[in-house]
Structure formats: C-alpha cells, structure tokens
Write a structure and sequence with these properties.
This protein has 767 residues and is an alpha+beta fold. The protein has 20 helices and 34 strands. Strands 1, 2, 10, 11, 12, 13, 15, 16, 17, 18 and 21 form an eleven-stranded antiparallel beta sheet that branches. Strands 9-8-14-20-19 form a five-stranded antiparallel beta sheet, with no helix packed on it.
Length: 767
C-alpha cells in the first residue's frame, strides 16, 4: 500500500492533520532549497518525537573513512558524506512556562503543512492545547531566497486563544550537529568562534579534513500585531558551538506576536572572511525588508516557472507530480556555479553521499538544456572536464595506463568515493554516459565549440579506458568485457553486459569521429590537444580493432540481445507471477537470491535502446521491451521514466501513463517505502523526459526538432516549452490536435508526425 496522505493540488504539496508517523516523510517532501543551500522541513520549535534533522550547503562535504570488512586494492579511501550543516532554523518556544512540543501537547488540531511550489514558500499552521491548558494558534512560513542565495527567512507567529500568554522565543544557532550516516560516529565540524552583536549572532565552524569554513548566522526581530518591538535579548547563552538568545513578550488574548528570523550560511568556497560576508547579508536583507524579500521570492519563482512549467489539464495528481519534480530540480541546481552538481538526494537527505552520479549526464542534462539556456548544460559538462585529471588518476589506481580515464561512480571532487566493490570496480558503464552527454549536448544545442575546447580530451580518455578494459577472447575471436555490473544492479560480476559493450563500442567510434573532425576544422585546438595527450594513428587503429570486433550476446531463439552472457540460464519467472508479499525484493530477499534471479532493477538493455534509439528499428524495440519489461521490478527511481518513454514510443499509452504516474509520484506516494531518507532528485528529470520525449515524442534529428505527440486518455491536454537554440517553442497537445507557438523573432521549422511545419513568431500553428 503506497502512502496517500498528500492532498491533490495543482500548485501545492499539502499535508493535513498531525501524525507523528508521517513527520519524517514530510520533512523530506516539504524540503526547500535554492541551489546554494537546502533545508529539510524540520520544525523550528523543539520536537521530542522521531525526526531527521537536515540542513545542507552545496559543495561542502566530508571524506568519511571507508568502512569495509576486508580491504582490497583500488578501494576508495573514503565515502564523501553530504554534510549535515549547522542548524540555523531552531527557535525553542515557551508559553506560560511550558515548552511548545507537538509530541507532548494535550491536543493538536487544524494542523496543515503547505509547500507552495508556485512561489517557493513553505507554510505550517496548527492549533495546540498545551498541558498547562493554554491554547495557541501558530502560523509559520519559511523560504530560502533565490535572490540572495545565502539567506533563509522564517516568520513564526503565535496567537494565544484562551487568555493572555507570556511567550518566550529562544532562537539559536547550533554547530554541534552530526550525520545520521556517519561511519565512525565522529563529528564533522570543528567550532572556531561564536559571537553576537545586538540581535545578530554568528557561529563559525570548519569541517575536519576538508577545511571548509562556514559562518552560520541569524538576526531576530520581535513583533507584536505586526509592529517591531525593538527589543534586545534578555539572556544570551553560549557554548563552544552554540548560541541562543531569549526574548520575552506578554501577549493579550487574540493578539499575534511573531519572531522574524533571518539566517543562513556564508562559506569559504565564496568568501575569504565568512563572518564579514554574513554581516553583509544581514545588512542587505534588513535594507530590503521582510515584505519585499517575500515579493522578490515570488517574482524569482514566477520567472523559473515561465520557462520550465508543464501544464496538465484534467488530472490533478499527474499535474501535482510533474510540478513537484520540476520544483525540486530547480531547488537543487540552478546552473549558476560550475563547481556544483546534482546530488541524487539534492538537499533533502544524506543517503548516497556524493554530489555527482551518472544520473546527471543520463537524465538531468536534457531537462536543463531545454528549460534553461545552454550555458547551464555546458557548466555541467565543464564540471566533468575540470575533473578529467582525477578520472585518469582513478583509472590509474585500478591499473589502467596512458591517460585512460575512468569517471567515478560517486564523487565530490572527481575522486571515486563509492565503496561497494561491485559498483566502484564494475559499474563502469557510467563512463559511457559522460561521452553520451557530450554528443547529446551538441545534438541539441548545435554548439560544437565545447568539443575542441574541452570535450575531445574527455572523449580520448574514455576511449582509452574502453580499449584497455576490453579483453580479446580467442574462444570467440572477438573482444569481450568481463566482470561488470550494468545499470541493473541486481546482477554483479557478469560478463558482456550488452549495454556496457554497446556503449564501449559507441564511445570509441564517436571519439575517433570527433578527432577527425577537430583535425580538419580546428587545427590549432587539434595541435594543442595532441601535444597534451600524445595520441597517434597506431593507437587509434588499436581502438578501432576493439570497437569493430566487439561481442554482443544474442539469442537466436528469443531474437533479442541478451542482458549478459548468462541471462537465459536463470529461472525466468515473470514479475507478475511473483508473490506480492515478496516485494520489494531488495527489502525481502537475500542478496544471493537476488543475484541468481532474473529480476531487473531498472532499464538495462533497454537503457541502450533509449540512448541509441535510432540504431534500432521499432520492431526491435518492441521485441526487447516485451522480453525485458516483464522481468523488471522497477526498484530504482530511474526505471519507470525510461519505460514510460518507450511504452509511449510503442503507442502503449495505458502502460506509458502508469509508468508516468509512478515516476512523477515516486516520492509523493512513497512507492519504494523510503522517502523519509530524502527525495529522488535525479530521477525527477526522467519524469520531465517521460512527458516531453515520451508523450510529446520530441527528438532532435539533423538539427531539427521532431514531435510525435500522444496523449493519455486521462488528460484533456498538456503543454510544455522548449528552449531550442535560443528560440522558445511552446507545444500544447489536446486529444485531437497539437498547437505550436514561438517566442522570438525568427521562424522555426519543426516536424510533427513526420510532416514539416513552419512556426512563425507570435502565431499559432495547429496540426
């Protein structure tokens, strides 16, 4: 049974009625972020119930020493932890001498959380009766500013309902935080200084080992009936890593008192003196004022939605799902800083560590290319170029030579930091996704300049890796790739994973093609690169021998490529014949049993058919889809989106729609029973693809946009926008027609169902 407590709404995520069992799940779902920092939806006031405290700063991490039973050569030294940052949101509250704690109130009613995605504002409200009989109404809103991305704003209002009340606000900053997933129970932050000035406080702390410095700051204003009381703290408590102010207010029955708390982080990634920077953020925020900060937030989100919104008519749950996905993607990464990337949990939890997986290249880049300008996608590619030396170092640790590059499965700074051997050493297909992203970027944007400037060096390092990783089999008289894990992590240490082998061949062919093009058309770049990488024709000929003679496992009987050599040796029981009580198998079965089973965690062979759709016929896709999907348990967040796109391509709209709902509401409905650990951010880009590439049928062929629009029967219509080469095209699909319109000043030719359509600026074309 999936959770279903989130109320359907077009623009908001809503949770009504206080239930301690749901607190941790809602802390994930109602998380907020602004690309530079993020915050789980923890309560500001003290809460003695089960909670998972989480505040995060982009780009700041801790190398937590690897914990394994038996050390093997090539193991990463550490696992990069996404750091739980010092807590800036905390406000302890006492009312008539009793601590406000929702876990201990006599009664909590009218409880409601709302995340307003249109405006980027999180609101929580409730009525509480305390043990001492005092009744209060509480209303809190919180946002992380998109304009000043080091700033968060809280407005916490309390109204006594059954008599006057003495309200004590005790806002604090606390750097004495720890990670729930720490390997060795150690602290990651070392406090450096705690200081205060009137209503402002600063805690500066530094991470052990990585030595990032962060100043966490707050500024507090106490109001009564909206008027600033201009009071200073009556008490200040300090320890080495915490500071807490006390403010006391007498409030009459029915009057509203509030604390407005400004807070956030300034970090050494961006400032030499983080405390001075924090003081400047406060000055700037106070000059703008609370009301204007709120207005600026609404405007900034309006601008984001203007380009990235997808509308769906007639299906509220589907609409809510896609907007939640788009909202979280924009909260996690806005493309302003090429040092940052898109972590799989974003700012919603600690799980998985690292900030970068192959998810970025395989799933996220298409979303950012089409909904922002191309510079954002280029920044994501540049991130990998900047880490090429580390990728070469990673390959060197495993015994590869001559500039072969193996990009990490998980990283913060380019170094591999994932410590499960079957993934670190074997899930090497990730290397191919990075090359594919370079191809995909050029295909979509038409900006070739990235390849001679940066991309070609990456392609050469990757081609060298594949050439060295392949083994010549005298038995087959072909090249094979042994001991790998494909995208299906429920098969480890297999030989000749079709997807990996196909990608390896493609990477080599693509690298050779680009070397020839750059040599012909960009002579000075070519000379610069060749003097750096020492590549000659003899080496390229060795690569080609591998690519041209790569082995792909194939079954004549089934007429399909095999996921790996031994796939047909398994007991091929389909998922629908599996007892429901056995699902999800990753929580019910031993790893040994999973590895021997035919069950597929996510698209594997079908991931190859997704990337290289134009290499195969529709009949081949259909045959492979029909063979593999019935064995797929979809226990990866990255699974339903690819299957939704392929089902739509095959015209199976009912199946496509079911997969779409699953990908778009994966977290909202908690399909995998783990949302309390955080949301699945990178797969959310796959949800966007399942509408645009799946239902919309968008492809780029020969520098032109092609669409084959389809629509689920549950929908009246849907629309989306694409920024294609600096022209913004809007596509609106109804049950019986599709319209195209264009913002810009020059016409664009597109293809709809194979027919050419000319779209002129500011006019509507109906197909």
């Amino acid at each position: 049974m999936n959770q279903d407590y989130i109320k359907p709404d077009n623009w908001s995520i809503i949770d009504e009625g206080f239930d301690a069992e749901r607190v941790k799940s809602s802390e994930s779902l109602f998380s907020i972020g602004n690309g530079a920092m993020g915050q789980r939806a923890n309560f500001e006031e003290h809460y003695s119930g089960e909670t998972f405290q989480g505040s995060y700063i982009a780009g700041i991490y801790y190398p937590d020493k690897t914990k394994v039973g038996w050390w093997k050569n090539g193991y990463p030294e550490y696992f990069a932890k996404v750091l739980n940052a010092p807590n800036w949101i905390g406000i302890d509250i006492e009312i008539n001498g009793e601590v406000l704690d929702l876990a201990k109130c006599k009664e909590v009613s009218n409880y409601k959380r709302e995340l307003n995605m249109k405006e980027g504002i999180y609101n929580r409200s409730f009525k509480a009766t305390l043990q001492n009989g005092t009744q209060v109404c509480v209303n809190v809103n919180r946002f992380l500013s998109l304009d000043i991305d080091e700033l968060g704003v809280i407005n916490y209002k309390i109204t006594p309902l059954n008599g006057e009340a003495k309200i004590v606000y005790k806002p604090y900053l606390d750097a004495g935080v720890h990670n729930e997933d720490a390997n060795w129970e150690e602290k990651f932050w070392e406090p450096l200084s705690v200081s205060n000035n009137e209503n402002e406080a600063f805690v500066t702390a530094r991470t052990f080992k990585t030595h990032f410095t962060a100043t966490t700051f707050m500024q507090n204003t106490i109001l009564l009936e909206g008027n600033n009381l201009n009071i200073s703290p009556s008490n200040i408590e300090k320890t080495a890593d915490k500071i807490q102010f006390t403010y006391e207010v007498a409030v009459a029955k029915g009057q509203t008192s509030s604390i407005q708390k400004l807070g956030g982080y300034t970090v050494s990634l961006n400032h030499e003196n983080t405390q001075t920077a924090a003081e400047n953020v406060i000055i700037k925020a106070l000059q703008i004022g609370h009301a204007q900060l709120l207005e600026n937030q609404i405007q900034a989100w309006a601008k984001i939605w203007e380009m990235s919104d997808i509308t769906i008519d007639g299906d509220v749950k589907a609409q809510q799902g896609i907007r939640f996905n788009i909202f979280q993607l924009n909260q996690t990464y806005l493309g302003k800083d090429s040092r940052l990337n898109i972590g799989p949990k974003g700012f919603t939890g600690e799980k998985y560590g690292g900030s970068t997986y192959w998810d970025t290249e395989a799933y996220c880049i298409p979303f950012y290319m089409a909904t922002k300008d191309q510079q954002v996608a280029r920044n994501l590619l540049t991130y990998r170029y900047n880490q090429l030396d580390k990728a070469i170092e990673n390959a060197g640790k495993l015994g590869f030579k001559n500039g072969a590059a193996l990009y990490p499965m998980v990283t913060m700074n380019g170094e591999e930091c994932h410590n499960e051997w079957e993934i670190t050493f074997e899930e090497i297909h990730r290397n191919g996704a990075i090359a594919f992203a370079i191809f995909n970027y050029y295909r979509f944007t038409g900006d070739y300049s990235y390849i001679p400037e940066k991309g070609l060096e990456v392609l050469i390092g990757i081609a060298r890796f594949w050439h060295q990783r392949a083994t010549y089999s005298t038995y087959r008289n072909q090249y094979v790739i042994l001991g790998v894990t494909g995208p299906n992590e429920y098969e480890n240490n297999v030989n000749n994973n079709f997807y990996t082998n196909y990608l390896a061949k493609w990477c080599i062919d693509y690298a050779v093609e680009q070397i020839n093009k750059v040599e012909k058309e960009y002579a000075s770049d070519y000379a610069r690169i060749m003097s750096k990488v020492y590549l000659d024709n003899a080496e390229i000929a060795h690569w080609k021998a591998v690519a041209d003679n790569m082995y792909f496992p194939y079954s004549e009987e089934q007429d399909v490529y095999l996921q790996q050599d031994g796939f047909l040796d398994k007991e091929l029981i389909k998922v629908h014949d599996l007892d429901k009580s056995q699902r999800p198998i990753n929580q019910k079965w031993s790893w040994d049993r999973i590895l021997r089973s035919p069950y597929i965690k996510q698209a594997d062979t079908l991931q190859g058919f997704y990337f290289f759709e134009d290499h195969f016929s529709k009949e081949q896709l259909e045959k492979h889809f029909d063979f593999y999907e019935p064995f797929t348990v979809h226990e990866s967040s990255l699974s339903p989106c690819v299957h939704s796109i392929q089902a739509a391509t095959l015209g199976r709209m009912e199946q496509a729609y079911t997969f779409y709902l699953r990908t778009s509401r994966l977290d909202l409905d908690d399909y995998n029973k783990e949302v309390e650990e955080g949301c699945h951010i990178t797969s959310m880009a796959g949800t966007w693809m399942s509408i645009v590439e799946g239902f919309g049928g968008m492809r780029v062929k020969n520098d032109m946009l092609h669409f084959e629009p389809k629509i689920p029967k549950e929908w009246e219509g849907y629309s989306f926008k694409i920024n294609f080469r600096n022209q913004i095209l809007k596509i609106a699909v109804q049950q019986n027609e599709t319209t195209f319109s264009l913002e810009g000043d020059k016409e664009i030719k597109v293809f709809a169902n194979g027919k050419e359509v000319l779209v002129e600026p500011n006019s509507l074309v109906t197909v």
